[in-house]
Amino acid sequence: MEAEALFAAMRPVVDGIQATFGRKCEVVLHDYRRVEHSVIAVAGDVTGRRVGSAMSQIGLSMLRQGDDAKDDLNYVTRLPDGRVIKSSTILLRTSDGHVVGAVCINLDVTEMRVAGRLLIEMAGDLDPLESPSTTFGTDIESVVDGVLAEVEDALGHPLTRLTVAERTEVFRQLDQRGLFQLRRAVPMVAERLGMSRQSVYNYITRLKEESAGS
């Protein structure tokens, strides 16, 4: 009941924040108890989220940290279409400190960055750093594919050509990103990696045993 009251109180806040920042702003309310359809309210349209959409890789990582998770403020990511998004994820907790959801503010700063870059170029300096890419999917499949693509890019070659050592590390990375909290992730990962579901479960079990023993 406390969680429901918290979400009810946040709904007008979501609309208020979005109205304050305007059309380049999107505010998303997540209920972390609904892992695969966590979005329960949206104001604005930056990432294409809708009520019933899945959480992003960032949300999965927060969820995996449980009640030890902390707010993530003013981080910058890049969407697959190249737009640059400045975001903040503010966790929602019950009175006993249990994390039940989050308010995510996404601000499209692409045009501001372009203008800023022109000024930097005229000043004779360039920042070579690129923002990390993330996927704000409307369904679980796009989120899973986004996480797998991120891990594959870091690895430098297709996930279907893994050595035994690489496969262990890949599963560790997927687990750290919270992917296996999604019930439907196992068959998707098995298909993308060319493995049986049982093999995927074996790796997950091994990771849990390692975590319990550490």
Low-confidence stretches: none
The computed structural class is: alpha+beta
Largest beta-sheet details: 5 strands, antiparallel
Strand content: 15-25%
How far the N terminus sits from the C terminus, by CA atoms, comes to 36 Å
Following the backbone from N to C, one meets helices and strands in this order, namely HEEHEEEHHHHH
CATH topology of the largest domain: Beta-Lactamase
Rg of Cα set: 19 Å
**CATH architecture term of the largest domain:** 2-Layer Sandwich
Mean pLDDT: 85
User: What is the CATH top level name of the largest domain?
Assistant: Alpha Beta
- Separate helix tally: 7
Give a written overview of the molecule.
With 214 residues, the protein is of the alpha+beta class. The protein has two domains: 2-118, Beta-Lactamase (2-Layer Sandwich); 140-213. Helices cover 45% and strands 18% of the residues. The chain is built from seven helices and five strands. It has helices at 2-21, 57-65, 110-122, 140-155, 164-176, 185-193, 197-213, and strands at 25-31, 39-43, 72-78, 84-93, 99-108. The chain has a five-stranded antiparallel sheet with strand order 2-1-5-4-3, with helices on one face. A hairpin with a 5-residue loop joins β4 and β5 (99-108). α6 (185-193) packs across α7. The longest helix has 20 residues, at 2-21. The two termini are 36 Å apart. The mean pLDDT is 85.
